[in-house]
């Protein structure tokens, strides 16, 4: 067993014992549409789409409305000539140059909190970052999953998606609009994998960390027997 594989074995054990994800174990699954705001050809290749699978989650899984790291996972439909959908995962973090990498942090509310991919993407010879913020007011204080479900069942939740090249400031990329709740039993556990499921020409960086994440996701899927 290689070093990278050995490092990820505990994730498989943890997922097997809990029968759920080790990180971001609790979340709400929904469907969404995405609308590109940036000019076509400028930056990352996110295009208008419907049927986007979205998971909004709590990173540690704290009960009720207690503070937690929050996450947003998007599974975009496959682009032309792509073999897989494009999975993009973000967690609450800073948007400054250092915060994009090191700034993962718990938050006190859903709305307005910046989330980042934490790892950059290489595309078109440049390094890119993706950030997102929920723009729809949800609740008043705390990060309750029940408040998300209630909002999604009666209305919609929107996110502003932004992109930044290198150390430049973030600029609008797209708007994500989620509606409805995918109830347990309606769909199998969606195994988001931002390393294997990507768009043509897009690669998570650095490569060694991408390989570690790939094995970590694989171990977690095996542990909870997800697809």
Structure description:
By secondary structure, the protein is an alpha+beta fold. The protein has a single domain, classed as Catalase core domain (Catalase HpII,  Chain A, domain 1, Beta Barrel), CATH 2.40.180. The chain is built from 4 helices and 10 strands. Strands 1-2-3-4-5-7-8-9 form an 8-stranded antiparallel barrel. A hairpin with a 2-residue loop joins β6 (121-123) and β7. It is globular and about 45 Å long. Mean pLDDT is 83; it is low at 1-19. It comes from Mycolicibacterium brisbanense. This is Phosphodiesterase.
If classified by CATH, what would the architecture be?
Answer: Beta Barrel
Compute the average pLDDT: 83
| Helix proportion range | 10-25%
N-to-C series of helices and strands:
HEEEEHEEEHEEEH
- Look up the CATH topology: Catalase HpII,  Chain A, domain 1
Q: What would CATH call the class? A: Mainly Beta
Q: Write down the overall geometry.
A: globular
Helix and strand composition category: alpha+beta
Any idea what the radius of gyration is?
Answer: 17 Å
Question: Would you identify the regions where 5 or more consecutive residues have pLDDT less than 50?
Answer: 1-19
How widely separated are the two ends? 23 Å
CATH-level-4 superfamily name: Catalase core domain
Number of helices: 4
Q: Kindly estimate the percentage of residues that lie in beta strands according to DSSP.
A: 25-35%
Instruction: Write out the strand line-up for the largest beta sheet, numbering strands in chain order.
Output: 1-2-3-4-5-7-8-9
What oligomeric assembly is this protein in?
single chain
Q: How many independent structural domains?
A: 1
Strand segment tally = 10
Report the major sheet: 8 strands, antiparallel, barrel
Protein name: Phosphodiesterase
Organism: Mycolicibacterium brisbanense
